């Protein structure tokens, strides 16, 4: 395995402009975009807000694909532009296509993600785990050799992602976390779609409190 790095690019922007119940200009969010690779090749995880910033971070490296953790606007709104700038492919779980279309209409990602799909970069494997609950097609990407999971909006420092939409499910996200994430080694680093990292061991003791709190 070569010298693999995990890089965080924090991008920001407004989403939901003009939608009922939101401010006219939308709401402002910061997102984590993750780059996994070495000095030659890289995988991009999520494409939020700023295609040029993501492309600049990739630099001269060969982009092996853009892996999308789910279809929400703030994680995919720069996806088409980023893919065009980098001349690379987009991957999304098909259960989130209906959400993706709210942002991108009839344009579709290049490939469908499936549970267990594996991606290689610089001798490191990233394994897709389907973790529905936040959205039907939410996924996480586990990198065992790095002791890391890229959790999107499934698990954060402090608890599970939001389940306030009609297509979301609090019981389902809890089941996804328990079966797909809490089965990872306790020292696994959790790199989420927003905010700071955590570890599996730091989140496991809070399960009972999450259940008591509900969504």
TrEMBL record:
UniProt keyword Hydrolase, yes or no: yes
Residues of the Metallo-beta-lactamase domain: 30-194
InterPro entries: MBL_Glyoxalase_II, Metallo-B-lactamas, RibonucZ/Hydroxyglut_hydro
Entry keyword annotation includes Hydrolase: yes
Top-level taxonomic group: Bacteria
Transmembrane segments: none
Keywords, ordered alphabetically: Hydrolase
Pfam families: Lactamase_B
GO molecular-function terms, A-Z: hydrolase activity
PANTHER family in the record: HYDROXYACYLGLUTATHIONE HYDROLASE GLOC (PTHR46233), METALLO-BETA-LACTAMASE DOMAIN-CONTAINING PROTEIN (PTHR46233:SF4)
Name the UniProt record assigns to this protein: Glyoxylase-like metal-dependent hydrolase (Beta-lactamase superfamily II)
Top-level taxonomy: Bacteria, Bacillati, Actinomycetota, Actinomycetes, Micrococcales
């Amino acid at each position: 395995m070569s010298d693999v790095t995990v890089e965080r690019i924090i991008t920001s922007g407004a989403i939901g402009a003009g939608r009922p119940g939101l401010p006219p200009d939308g709401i402002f969010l910061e997102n984590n975009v993750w780059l996994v690779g070495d000095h030659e090749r890289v995988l991009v995880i999520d494409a939020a807000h700023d295609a040029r910033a993501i492309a600049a971070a990739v630099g001269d490296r060969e982009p092996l694909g853009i892996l999308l953790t789910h279809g929400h606007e703030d994680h995919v709104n720069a996806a088409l532009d980023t893919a065009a700038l980098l001349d690379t492919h987009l991957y999304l779980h098909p259960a989130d296509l209906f959400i993706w279309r709210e942002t991108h209409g009839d344009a579709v990602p290049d490939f469908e993600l499936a549970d267990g799909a594996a991606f290689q970069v610089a001798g490191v494997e990233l394994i897709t785990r389907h973790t529905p609950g936040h959205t039907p097609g939410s996924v996480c990407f586990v990198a065992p050799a790095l002791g890391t999971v890229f959790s999107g909006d499934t698990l954060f420092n402090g608890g599970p992602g939001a389940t306030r939409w009609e297509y979301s499910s609090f019981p389902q996200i809890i089941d996804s976390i328990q079966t797909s994430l809490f089965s990872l080694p306790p020292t696994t680093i959790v790199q989420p779609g927003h905010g700071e990292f955590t570890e599996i061991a730091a989140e496991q003791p809070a399960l009972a409190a999450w259940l008591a709190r509900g969504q």
